[in-house]
Design brief:
Rossmann fold; 2 domains; four-stranded mixed sheet; about 30% helix; binds zinc ion
Length: about 475
């Protein structure tokens, strides 16, 4: 595919050069009351320009955005008024971004227990709250956040930037298998649905080819029939679903002849999973790192050097177990401040993901922060009987390598008991259970009790996500 989807192309070539700033004067990026294609297009151009600034200039501008956000949150959110005062931070006079470390991390529990207090009592002119979103955690109760017209505009513009970076040809066809929330949406049928345009922002900004939508709740065989009919240029889905689809296509020796790129969204994509999806489909995978709470966080570097953070939207910190900044190259937890949400500030939000930051400037020349890889989710951690915590990635690689498991879900019920639900391949036998048990014993360094349940399919969470490791042990 060619990078023909640049922001200068498409039907909105002749937009006014100047942008009317009707949002908060404190926004460093344009804000308007709608995410119409014209507004999105202008913001996309700003973003595509900004990414080529020097690293220090990008950081300087981001610091200005951070100060504006902190001042606003302090003035209008009771939760942050208290939090920022208690930690002794003065957003107006702070000398650098490192002073942000005085503000305590925002946990899911904070979010759950302080919803009303976090909300800003007033909004900047031109800004309105547009949506209340609920996110589900693996072990905790759902968390609610509010989004505004400005965060929606940023979401839309970053969607376009991501697709431009991916080099997607908008004239091609897109098949999208994901969660669709409306109960009566035609994508929820076994046949899925065909639309004339990709829809959404991309469809509003560019003339596109058709889109084929199917809900993630459909069985893998129905998904394959749907894809064979659609014969798409581009396929979008969740990594775990892509892996399962790829495996089944391989078993049945089916190819999708037009497919040029696979877009992975919604879940973290570990390197081994990326390789297995790329091998199965015979195409590169384009990975997007985002969260319901803060929107777009990072997309792959168009030059193939890891990921770049969308720093106009989020400030990302990588922290160690003591909440201190990691050295470059050291994996640490991802802590995110959403710079554009003035309705429901999310300052130093611990997302439960892990990543590795890179210090050196990227060879592609972009000034945006680089991440080498996104390592995994905290929810992918398991608890050893002696209290240590280990990432589950060794186990997932081992289970994949066994070749007898189509899909699995591991739930650690307690320190000495783990349950595993398996969708087995043909030929799965007691011998495989024995091997799996050995893997668990080696991983936990303890003869942990393992119980098995064999099923024909594993349901996703209500939000369409699929969690392969869940730890309920304390
Ligand atoms: Zn780069």
């Amino acid at each position: 595919m060619n990078a023909s989807g640049s922001a200068e192309d498409g039907k909105h070539r002749s937009l006014p050069a100047e942008f009317e700033l009707r949002g908060a004067p404190s926004y460093s990026f344009p804000a308007v009351a709608s995410s119409s294609s014209a507004s999105v297009q202008i913001l996309v151009n700003k973003l595509l320009e900004n990414e080529w600034r020097s690293r220090s200039e990008v950081k300087g501008r981001q610091f200005g955005q951070l100060q504006s956000l902190l001042r606003f949150a302090q003035g209008h959110s009771p939760f942050y008024a208290d939090r920022i005062r208690s930690c002794g931070l003065d957003p107006g006079t702070m000398g650098g971004v490192d002073e942000l470390q005085r503000v305590p991390l925002l946990t899911r529990v904070d979010l759950r227990d302080n919803f009303e207090q976090i909300k800003c009592r007033e909004l900047p002119p031109g800004t309105v709250v547009t949506e209340e979103l609920a996110t589900s955690g693996s072990t905790s109760s759902p968390v609610r956040v509010l989004t505004t017209n400005v965060t929606a505009l940023m979401w839309a513009a970053l969607n376009v930037r991501d697709h431009v970076w991916a080099g997607l040809d908008p004239h091609g066809s897109l098949a999208s298998i994901r969660h669709f929330s409306r109960g009566d949406h035609p994508s929820r049928t076994r046949q899925g649905v065909r639309l004339d345009s990709w829809g959404g922002t991309f469809g509003a900004c560019f003339v596109t080819g058709p889109a084929y939508l199917m809900d993630i709740s459909q069985d893998v065989e129905d998904q394959i029939s749907f894809l064979l009919k659609a014969n798409p240029d581009c396929l979008l889905s969740y990594p775990t679903n892509l892996e399962m689809l790829g495996r089944r296509l391989g078993e049945r020796r089916i190819e999708l002849p037009r497919l040029a790129v696979v877009l992975a969204v919604g879940e973290v994509l570990p390197p081994d999973m990326r390789h297995s999806i790329e091998a199965a489909f015979g195409t590169p995978v384009w990975d997007l790192y985002s969260s319901v709470e803060v929107g777009y966080i990072a997309s792959q570097c168009p030059g193939g050097n890891g990921y770049h953070v969308h720093e106009e939207n989020v400030l990302v910190e990588i922290l160690d177990e003591d909440d201190q900044p990691c050295r470059p190259g050291e994996p640490g937890k991802v802590v995110v401040t959403a710079l554009m949400n003035y309705g429901f500030p999310l300052i130093r939000c611990d997302l439960g993901d892990y990543a590795v930051a890179v210090e050196e400037p990227c060879r592609c020349g972009r000034g945006l922060m680089s991440l080498k890889e996104i390592v995994g989710r905290q929810r992918g951690q398991l608890l050893l009987p002696d209290g240590r915590v280990k990432f589950s990635s060794d186990l997932s690689v081992a289970f994949r390598d066994m070749g007898q498991i189509r899909q699995f879900k591991v739930t650690q019920h307690s320190r000495d008991h783990v349950g595993m639900v398996i969708v087995p391949m043909e030929g799965f036998a007691d011998e495989d259970k024995r091997k799996i048990t050995e893997e668990f014993h080696a991983f936990f360094e303890f003869p942990i009790r393992v119980s098995f349940t064999l099923v024909s399919r594993i349901e996703r969470t209500p939000g369409g996500k699929y969690l392969d490791f869940v730890c309920n042990a304390t």
